[in-house]
Amino acid sequence: MRWMRFTLPLLLLISPLAFGQKQYTQAACLLLQHQMAQFAHQPNSHNYQSAKRELDNHCQNPIPAPVKDLVLTNIPAKPVTVSSVKNTVTTQPANSAVAVKAAVPPPVKPTPAASPKPADVLSALFAPVLAFFGGILAMLLLFTAILVILALVLGRYGARIKGALGEWALHRVLVSELPASYQHYRNLVIPAEKGDFTEVDHLVLSPFGVFVIEVKNYRGWIFGAEKQPQWTVQRFRSKHQFMNPLHQNYKHTEAVKQLLGLTGKDSDTVHSIVAFSLRAEFKFPMPQNVMYIDLVGDYINRFTQPCFCDEQLRQFSARLNMAKAGKKVLRKLHKQQFDY
C-alpha cells in the first residue's frame, strides 16, 4: 500500500486543474471529434493538434444538451384516430427482392402483325377510284335534279316568263326611243264592254294619239293572215295555234276607248300595235301595225299630228292612273272570270 501514499496526493493535486477547465457541450465535442477524424491523415497539422487539445481539455466531462418540451403555438391540435394511424403505418415486405419482382410488370410480347387479306388490298387500291366516280355520280344526280326542277317551273310558268321577258324588252325600247313627255303604262287591267275585264300589255299616251300594244314573245315561224281567227307558230316539227293577236288587241282598244270616253272620230286616235320578238319569223305579208319589238318606237314617232289638247291629256291621265292604282284588285277580278 506504499504506492497509495504517492497517488492520492497526486490525484488531489490534479483534480482541481481537471475540474477547473470549462467543459464543452456534447455537440461541441462531436464537432471536435469530427475535425480530428477529418485531419487524421495529418496528425502534426495545426487543425488536428488544436482539435485534440480542445477535446482533451474541455471534453472530459461534456455537458449534456438540455431537453426542452416542444410547445406548438397557433396550431390546432388534430385528434388522432385509429383510421389515421392505420393509414400512416406502412409495411415492408419481408423479402425486398420478392417485392421488387412483384412490382415490375412482366414484359409484353409483341403480337405478330396479321397478313393483309386480298379483299383489303383490293379495297385500298380501288378506294380513290370509287371516291372519284362517286363524286361524279353525285354531281350528275344534282344536275339532273336541277334540270327536273327547271323543267317543272318552265312547264308551269314558261308562258308567263316568256311574256314578261318580251314585255320588258318592249319597255326598254319605249323608254329609250320615245320622248319623256309621253306617258307609259304597263299591264293595265280595265273593264271591257260586256262587264268583264281585259289586260293591256302596254299603253302609250301622247298628244298624237293613244297606242295600245300587244306583245308576243314567240319563237319560230309565224303563219296567219289579218282576218284569220287563229295563227300558227311552228318550230321544227312542233306546231302551236294561238288567237289572232289583231283580234285580241281589238278588244283591248275598245276597252281603252270606253275608259277614256272616246267615240266617233276621236276613236280613230286609238291605235292598235302587235309586237313580236326577233326570234319570230313571219311567213306571210305583215300588216302595217304588226312588227318586231325593236321597230315600235319608230312606228309611234311617225305620228306627228296633234289630236288631244292639254286638258284632254290630263283627263285621260287621271283615268289611267285610277286604273293603275286599282290594278291589284282589278287583276284579281280578271283572273276570277277565267275560273268560272
TrEMBL record:
- Annotated signal sequence is 1-20
Q: Keyword Acetylation, does the record have it? A: no
Q: What keywords are annotated for this sequence in UniProt?
A: Membrane, Signal, Transmembrane, Transmembrane helix
Locate the NERD domain: which residues? 162-279
Q: Which InterPro entries match?
A: NERD (IPR011528)
Domain of life, per lineage: Bacteria
Mark the transmembrane ranges: 125-154
Write the protein's name. NERD domain-containing protein
Q: Which organism is it from?
A: Rheinheimera sp. BAL341
